[in-house]
Amino acid sequence: MTQHKGNLFILSAPSGAGKSSLYKALLKTDDKVRISVSHTTRAPRAGEEHGREYFFVDVDSFLDMIAEDAFFEHAQVFDNYYGTSKQAIFDTLDQGLDVILEIDWQGARQVRELYPDAIGIFILPPSMAVLEERLTGRGTDSQEVITHRMSKAISEISHYDEYEYVVINDDFDTALAQLQAIFVSQRTRMPLIREIHGDLINDLLS
What we know:
This protein has a domain at 8-37 and 97-205: 3-Layer(aba) Sandwich (Rossmann fold), CATH 3.40.50.300. 46% of the residues lie in helices and 20% in strands. It contains 9 helices and 9 strands. The strands form 2 sheets. A 5-stranded parallel sheet has the order 2-7-1-8-9, with helices on both faces. Strands 4-3-6-5 form a 4-stranded mixed sheet. The radius of gyration is 18 Å and the shape is globular. The model has no long low-confidence stretch (mean pLDDT 90).
């Protein structure tokens, strides 16, 4: 497998665990991290823009892209499709930037089949009660939707052990510090150092 200059991170969590808040805070403090912009068939939420949060497409267009093998991974979640462009990911990694794939456990499995070096991070809530409070506090979903998300949360959480790292989002600042440490530490792994600083190492050994 080609060694890219950046790391590919998989970030997963049940809805309401605080995943989006954490990675957005990380992006503000680490200029070497980018979030992957996926394609989706779901409708835009208030304040979302095409090309920023997602590329919003219809189902037929999404299915055409699957047929063209244009996605790095794709999955159906809550009756909607989500997928990530292969070329966009690799182009970003080759710039020496880390990329976050914000996907569920199903998408994570697809990514690992194509890219075993991907680094998985799972975000857990401190309790199911807190998770429900956070979903309710958003004020964007109906009670029916919240109940559905809570029922799915247990299934999603059961896959936490498929990931290399687990961050419990109880105290936000602590969880953010742990996330930051994971990203920084991964940049000093031997294969990556050899790829990025091969000339320096050769000079030191000569």
